[in-house]
Amino acid sequence: MNSRIPQLVAIRVRNQFMDWSGAWWFTVTLVANHAIGPLIGLVVWSAVMPSGQAPVSYYVALVAVQLLTASFENHTFSESVYDGRVSHDLLKPQPVIIGPVGENIAIRVWMGIFGLPLTVVTALLVGASYRWSEALLAVPALIGAAVLRFLWTWLLALAAFWTERVHAIVAFGNILIFLLGGTAAPIALLPEPLRSIALALPFHAMLGLPAEIATGAVQGSDAGSAILLQLGWGVAFAGVAAVVWRRGVRRYAVIGA
Amino acid sequence: MRTVLKVARLFGAGFSMSLRQTLAFRVNLAFDIVMAVVQLLSTLATVLIIFSRTDSLAGWTRPEVFVLIGTFELISGVKTTFVDPNLANFPTRGIREGHLDHQLLQPAPSMFLVSLGTAAPLAAVQIPLGLVVVGMGVSMGGQVPGPGAVVVWLLLVGAATVTMWAVGMLLASLAFWASKLDLQSLYGNAWQFARYPSDIYAKPLRFLFTYVLPLALIATVPARALVRPFDLSSVLLALAAGVVAVGLAVVAWRRGLKRYTGATS
Amino acid sequence: MAAVVVRDLSMTYRVPVRQGGLAAALKSVVRRRYREVHAVRDVSFEVAAGEVVGFVGPNGAGKTTAMKMMSGLLHPTAGTVEVLGYTPWQRRTPFLKQIALVRGSQPTGGLQELTVLDSLQYQRVLYEVPAGEYRRNLDELCELLELGPLLERQLRALSLGEKMRAGLALSLLYRPKVLFLDEPTLGLDVSAAAAIRRFLATYAGQTGATVLLTSHYMTDVESLCRRLILVDHGSVQYDGPLDQLSARLSPYKLIRVSAPSAAKEDFADIAEVVATHDISWDLRVPRDQVARATSMLLTTLDVVDLAIEEPSLENVIDRAYREGV
After folding, report:
1. Distance between CA B45 and CA C53 in Å, rounded?
2. C68/B105 Cβ within 8 A
3. What is the pLDDT of residue C105?
4. First to last CA, chain B
5. What's the pLDDT score for residue B202?
6. Which residue does chain B place closest to C118, by CA atoms?
7. What's the pLDDT at C21?
8. Distance (Å, rounded) from C-alpha B122 to C-alpha B33?
9. How far apart are CA C279 and CA B21, in angstroms?
10. For the ranges A115-124, A233-242, B226-235, which has the lowest average pLDDT?
11. pLDDT-based confidence at residue B128 (cuts at 50, 70, 90)
12. Which residues, listed in sequence order, are joined to residue C37 by a DSSP beta bridge?
């Protein structure tokens, strides 16, 4: 079964991608929904910082990162727990997580298709610029952030086994990402105790880090160690998620649909 | 006059019904109130972070920004409690699933039933929270605004609320022409732009947010009335915007209804 | 005075059409093609106060569209409608307080989490029913519709039959003068449908309300309506008493004879044999010859049992749909 997993994921991605092709307007609203945060941050911090120091390129990069790492497992997975559809998935000979993973990737691809032109236009409008070397270095960090953010949302979405208010829990998680991940303010600009806390927490690794690497704010060896930190958090989340998953399924089997 | 009284009574009945519906699930009470508080704290935290770096945000001091955020929270609360629960589902539940048909048969103004018939009572906690933040801003600033300024502020908050409702109604009416289009969530997104003083936006955007999609009038203009000297032109602008918005909304709704061919039979 | 007056009513709307295939899909983004659908064409009729009229017609005939125009939900493309003296789509409050539309497909609107009693109370505020009248009407409806056990239950938890009863109660609470019913027994089991029919007959009799009813079930129409309007392809094909339609469409009656010792040739001069089962024979006889055929059967054959039947309304209507009137 283990060798089939990439194949199963690929099939799932393809199916979900086709499925979503009919919902283009919905994708547009999703893109708008997620681009707003970094865009407002861009405007606000351009007004705060003296010109020349404004984190313009950072925020434009952040728009792209936000769109490509957005996760909705509370909608794709938790709802299936609430209306009982997860029972079907539990009976299939494949890990249940493949479904949400596939859908997550498909959604992000669609958001990229609609969102990257937006990012490019914004970059041109505000005069953001990047160096190729830094942008390339940001790619592995972006992939790490995408995986990490999925695991975080997935972990929160598992709360559906215990409570009906999963959307509120995920919203709370998103507020944490907003404040401590680099949207409310670039991490470097946070006042002191907050800044060290933010660097220690995983939220920065899920969102701000790739943008900072792309703009050169984090360089060379710092970037390397930050990516290692991403890996560390990823492993931790995956481990906790596995335990929580087993407990959750057991509870679901006892309580029923 | 009778219609006004009846609408008021229906409004009360609708709110009471929504409250009963909400209270059926007690866990939600705690969650929703906590969520509202947490979201407000997140905005305030962002403001504090901003002001750790500077003393002025496009000419607004920290106490002034607090007043603005409180005003925004207040009007946002009215929107989330009374308007969003109804208009958010209008294209799907109302037009495509036929809920509008039930409302059209009822002997009350259809615009009222469609936009204010039900409520999300727990979101109303944002209203007192907003007032508290405005109070905080006033006390931080040290200067108590005179009664005239408070009256103007209330007037402008009222105008902003009406404008907010009218724009929502106008966007919802567009569903009569293109029922797949869901503009309410985009409206909610654009709404976020009103969270900060409109002075931070570059000239073209500021123009857009004042004259086309009057977001600046939601929080910036009323807040200014409370913390800056009286400015007649902005008061007149806000009132005019309210009137124009309501006019457009009524026209769009009526035209849309004429065009309405109903859900599938 | 007539309660409902309809003149030359028409409803036409445009639907986008598109051929299959990718090329056509792309083309349709640039230029949309439309087709006109004439849902209702030049329909005219009058309904007097207190009448119970049944509308029948195949799916897509235009019955529901016509009903929606009469209740004010749709704006017609041409023609006029007057209900109780009002133009329905102006949706004046006094008009709306005197009519009700109940649809079998969605009997209850409003917040589904509310109990039936809560919804009734909201209706009271909405329709401004005075307290005394509210009490009286509620008690009466509770008795007729057996609402007792339903009052405390949430709307969404009701079965289809219960929802229909609740929907009728909500609509009749304010004693509308004109009642539009769109497929009221849709999806109901035999007993539930019969209960609804009994209720409607009683209600119409007691209150003198004008009832316009569409249904696909002939039992509804037969038991409730004296007058039938047959709508097909958007126009009125027949408007008159129920029994006359049968007579017009089906000039035959069916005679069932049980005669143990009869053989096929015995019937040759009397009537056409359409079926035979053991000792019973089904004969098709033109209406004006029924008396003659019956007396001939009774005199020439050893008849054990004889029955004269109208062709079922179902068959008649089916024939009307397929062949026209």
Report:
1. 68
2. no
3. 84
4. 37
5. 82
6. B17
7. 66
8. 7
9. 66
10. B226-235
11. very high
12. C13
Whether B260 and C99 lie within 8 Å, measured CB to CB? no
Mutate to test the interface with C, among B89, B99, B255, B261 (most CBs of C within 10 A): B261
CB contact under 8 A, B58 and A47: yes
The ipTM estimated for the assembled molecules is 0.84
Q: Which domains does chain C have, with CATH numbers?
A: 2-12+44-246 (3.40.50.300), 251-309 (3.30.70.1150)
C199-214 pLDDT per residue, tens? 999 999 889 999 999 9
**How many domains does the structure of chain A reveal?**
1
Residue B118 to residue C111, Cβ atoms within 8 A: yes
Measured distance CA(A145)–CA(A110) in Å, rounded: 18
Give the dihedral sign, CA B96/B97/B98/B99: negative
Mean pLDDT within B163-181: 89
3-class DSSP assignment, residue C124: helix
The whole-angstrom separation of Cα A63 and Cα A71 is: 14
Q: Is C126 within 8 Å of B99 when comparing Cβ atoms?
A: no
Q: Taking CB atoms and an 8 Å limit, are B107 and C127 in contact across chains?
A: yes
Token couple for C247: 């007579």
- Nearest by CB to A184, which of B25, B28, B46? B46
Count Cβ–Cβ pairs < 8 Å, chain A vs chain B: 74
- Angle between helical axes of A56-69 and A24-48 (0-180°, round to 10): 150
**For residue C83, pLDDT beyond 90:** yes
Q: Which of B34, B42, B201 sits opposite A178 (nearest CB)?
A: B42
Instruction: Calculate mean pLDDT across residues B191-210.
Output: 86
CB < 8 Å to B34, chain A: 168
Terminal-to-terminal C-alpha distance of chain A: 27
β-pairing, C2-17 with C78-83?
antiparallel
Q: Measured between beta carbons, which residues in chain C are less than 8 angstroms from residue B28? A: none
* pLDDT given for residue B122 in this prediction: 87
Residue C262 vs residue C103, higher pLDDT: C103
CB distance B182–A25 less than 8 Å?
yes
Task: Between C21 and B244, name the one with better pLDDT.
Answer: B244
Structural domain that includes position A117:
4-255
Contact by Cβ (8 Å): B73, B222: no
Query: What chains are in contact with B, requiring at least 3 Cβ pairs below 8 Å?
Result: A, C
Using alpha carbons only, what angle is made at residue B49 by residues B45 and B51, rounded to the nearest 5 degrees?
115
Is A171 a residue whose pLDDT tops 80?
A: yes
Q: What does the angle CA C140 – CA B108 – CA C82 come to, to the nearest 5 degrees?
A: 80
